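P.,

For your records, the input lines for the assembly:
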Amino acid sequence: MTGAPQALAIAGVLAIFLGAINAGSSRSPRTGLALQSTGVLFAGAAGVWVLASGHALGAAFRSDIHPAFGLDPLSGFFLVIIAAVGAPAAWFARDSLRADGSGRALAVATGTFLLALIGFVSARDVSTFLEFWELMTLVPAGAILIARQDTEARHGVFVYLAITHIGGACVWASMLALAWHGALGGHSLGGGLAAFVACASLVGFSTKAGLMPLHSWLPRAHPLAPAHISALMSGVMIKLAIYGLVRVLFDWLAAPGPWVGITLMALGSLSCLGGVLYALMQHELKRLLAFHSIENVGIVALGLGASLVLRDIGADTWSAIAFAAALLHALNHALFKGLLFLGAGALAQAVGSLELDRMGGLLRRMPWTGTTFALGAMAIAGLPPLNGFASEWLTLQSLLHLGGVTHLGVAFAGTIATAALAGTAALAVYCFVKVIGLVLLGLPRRPECAQASEAPGAIRASMVFLAAGCVLLGVLPGPLVGRLAALSPGSVSLGGSTSLEVPGTGSLPTLALALALVALVAALARLAHAHRIAAAPTWTCGQPPAAALAWTSAGFTKPLRLVLEGFLRPRREAQIIVSSTGIVEAVAYSAEVPHLFDTLLYGPVSRGALRGARVARRLQSGSLRAYLIYLLALLGALLALARIGVLG
Amino acid sequence: MTGAAIWGLVVSSLAVIVVRRRSTAIVLVGAQALGLGLYALTHEPSASPAPMVAGTILITKGLLLPALLLITTRRARKERLIVSEPNALARLAIAVSVALAIEQLIPRFGLLEAGVEHAAVGVLVLGILVAVVRRAVLFQALGFLIAENGVYLAGLSLPSGLPAFIELGLVFDLVVVVSVAAAFAAKIHERLGSGDSSLLEVLRD
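Structure tokens returned:
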């Protein structure tokens, strides 16, 4: 690396490293976390330089195993994502972590996690790439276990590590096959092996990205972690799996074929619809946000899949637009999901439980946290003029274009994907109306909510930083979209306008739209102040208004649950205890929407694996003679196979 | 190496499979090592020091390890009949058939004489089979010594011999394994009144 960007990147990494050491060795981790936050901003600045200039820094990708580091515009973009979430997350942790042993250990884990994420995007050889990939998986597991040692946490971490390591095996297989054939060094891999690499990388990277049906670890692990680690996991870590997928499918494989794009679109459609649907049925805020991560990664996959299919049919400009839409949504999701997880952390710090039915009235008591959280909720729901709307609109445009091509199969896939994205957008609005209504508005449902006070300064600053990013990328997405489109394999150049411009179907004047909305809101506010309204209690059929009469999470989503009863298969149990005189003494009600992937897919698979393990255990007799017999049998079998020509 | 010497190695390995007395088996294995060591020291001189190193190691091993094992057997003199073992004829039949099958399957691996190559593989496999078909811990240790003699036979047939580092590494590993096995055999004999390793299976959790 040379020059100022090199100095920035190295200074950033050193600052994070020193920050981690300082956090671990000082009485309070605050200074160390501030250093980490500054360091990741420096590294992000190097990423911005590389992305904006289009020049690479340091080593280029190569297929050997000698450690090498460097940055090109694509890894620069993902470094920006790391910095955009990593800096506020580390800053947030200054006020959220306690100054005790556990807090210091978590601060060290935060720095290690940031270094692993940066190391992964800057790795330029297969061994470094895989080492940081594994480190990126292990560090959050450690952070969860530092924060919590209960059975639920240990089980969640076990599931997380088990599923991501099955995926990890596929990543290893695909990367080693690519390196063996020199595909990392500039010669794209084609032929029959390319299909194997495409399949292995789809399974491997999709598992870490949380695409359905390989997502089962995500809603278990993300809610368990401390808020700032959840923000990094959901905002950044799963995006780096997308980075790996982009590298393999767009850079290292030579035209993998339309089936790869269509498979990606199918996984994306399933993930975005399934994710939002299960998010709607959740009653705990962080678990709900985790399911929304699955939904948003699904939207990113839709964009990438569309880009591959469009490239395959020769529509290079639209392929680049879909590619840019996917990357833009990855950044946008990092911003608003980071904001929402940090917001959830701030709320949890103020009121304890994050059960939706036990919150309420927090906007008035925590105006900074509440307002920024609401902004994040509107952004993730895809409301204009925020960033979620911009990238979902661009993805929708790409999918609509796909629906109009002459290839029947491609058009059908495009139509299905368009419908899935449209349905997802509608359900996401529905879900976040519920969240804002139950968490921020209404009456406080517990004394802790009534007595909640605003979050400390570092937490507020982190959330404002991310909220500002959501607004900025919603109002002025154009320049970034142009740069991202240039990263696609076709290197298509789009106009450098501030708004979103696409050929043929018109454009989206984001800035004008934002200004019009601001003017409309100002006019409505002025109008509201001009006519004073006398406040009166809500009519509750003659009863005094009480928190217990307010909407519940289950009540709000009941219409949808009834419509989809055949698919969701909710379980309800009501128990009425009646005394001998016929008076109802108590009513107990419980309801649950089971996760069908767990019931129908992971349950049978894990039961089968356990049965297999019981059988395999019989082979482990502990007898030396038995092991020697296995050895001789294996030797004999291999020799026999070699003799008949199956081996060698 | 003469055909008679090679057959001597194979037959003594087969004898360890059938003999009842531990001391006889120990003497047979020690004789194998001594025979190989004498061959290494006396066969046609070469510029390489490898045969000299191998011969010295083999003779030391042929004296030291049997002595160690004989001391162990003296300490545990009242050996019960090991009933879990197949009878001698069955053991011999199993060993001969498995060794012949592997002999047939294994391809040539580059020794100058085909007969030596077959014998080396045969002794190696018979050594492993001694550990499989004999239940006493001491016989299992002898099985490893026989297998190693097979490796030495192949090594001595190479034009340049085995490198001295490999020779020393092999013998170090083997001394450790046999010493541990001897101590283990003495201990379980003291506790269980027998060196039958199958008795240990009930200790498994």
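Two observations worth noting. DSSP finds seven helices and no strands in chain B. The CA atoms of residues 21 and 176 of chain B lie 24 Å apart.

Regards
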